[in-house]
Amino acid sequence: MRRLLRRLIRNKRGAVAVEMAIVGPPFLLTLLSIVELGLILTTQALLDGATRDAARAIRTGQIFLTGNNSVTAFQNILCADMGTIMNSVDCKTNVVINVVSAHSTSFSQLNFNPCCTWNPGQGGDVVGVQVSYQRPFIIPWVGTVLSINNSQKVPIVTTVVFRNEPFS
Known about the structure:
With 168 residues, the chain is an alpha+beta fold. The chain has one domain. It is built from five helices and three strands, in the order H-H-H-H-E-E-H-E. Helix 2 packs antiparallel against helix 3. The termini are far apart.
C-alpha cells in the first residue's frame, strides 16, 4: 500500500489540468472584466462627447429654431453621435435627459431634478444638461460580479454646465 501511495504522489501526469482548473476561472474573469471595463469607458467617452455636441445646440440657441420639438431635436443630435454603440431606438428609450436652467449668473443655483426636466432657458441663462444611460453588461458573468444589487446594468452619467450665449 505504501508503494502505491508513493508512486501516486510522484506521478506528475494531469498536474497541468489541475493547475488550469484552479487558475483558469479567476484569470478568465479578470480578462473579461478588463474587456468589459474598456467598453464601459468607451461608452462614457462617447456619451460625454455626444452630450457636449447636443448641449452646444442649446448654448447657441439653435435648438429654438427647430420649433416646438426642441427635445426631439436634442435627442436626434445626441443619438446621432451615440450611433456607434447603440441604435437610435435604444438611444431614445434608454437615455434619460435632464435639462435645467437658472435665471441668474450663479452656477450654484442649478438644481437637477431626479428625472426628465426640459428647461433650456433663454439667452444668458445658466444651463445644466445631465444625460444618463443604463448600460447593460455584455458579459453576464462579469455583470454579476461588478453590478450593484445584481441589476446587470451600470449607470453612466455625464453633466455639462454652461451659460447660454446672448441670443434673442
